[in-house]
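It would be a great kindness if you could assist me with a short task in structural biology. Thank you for your consideration; the sequence and its tokens are set out here.
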Amino acid sequence: MNNFNYELQPGRELRPFKFEKDYEPIISIVMPFYNEREHIEQTVNSVLNQTFPAWELIIVDDGSNDEDALKGLEKIAKKDKRIHVYHKENSGPGDTRDFAVSKSSESSKYICTLDSDDLIDKTYLEIAYFTLETNPNATWAYTDSIGFGKENYTWNKGFSSNKLKKVNELTVCAVIKKEDFLAVGGYGVKEKKIFEDWNLWLKFIADKKYPVHNSYYGFWYRRNEHSELSASVNTNKKRAMEIIHDTCKTIKGTVEAKEYPDYNYNWNYIRDDFKFKSDFKEENNEKINILMIIP
């Protein structure tokens, strides 16, 4: 029986952390936008509430035709100077995310893919950042997820590159090393209603890239009939699977994820050469906040 409290949604209230200075963006959050007016404010609040301050949010309007939604987007853009809004003709979510990445700051090292109606826990960026920084050979970091809305469930699957060739158990939301994203050509698809996120993970595996799997419920996936994934499942599926099968043909061998927690951790091996320092400081806070990621 699942006793999870689905009322604990991030972003229902705006409770941002205040930091003592502004930081150059290290993580660029890329968000496609299309006629979304019901949930985007909560989504953006979940970004503004992050414990990690060095981000920018790039929202790309993919040819919306809902005037009320566009007016709402204008208000969203004024919430924080780290939010940037662009407009372009409609081309689908994959191409729109690629466009957003092309607008990311030179200082950003990672990108985070987030849809305009989904949510992230307040520690999502911080945990992804530190686990990627401490695993420099990994390409992307993702978490377990919570489905909510039309359906309520928790989703926590271990990573298997072999299984991923047959079924996608990963969500669209992840923090990805930008250099590796660009190296595989990004999403690289202009077609609509295909499994562009699944195809991206397979492209990474074909390039011998592996993820960090942070096993906690960091991502909230909103289940409703208007979501991008819901539309993709029932429309253009034959063509979508052709693309997946073509990418699978390029995969040779398997990759393994770095898992947190690691149940096979070698406690006899302790790194004494680890050099990492965080310079992010909250404003007027004399307390020391400790985030521990235990293997």
Notes: The mean pLDDT is 90. The two ends are 27 Å apart (CA to CA).
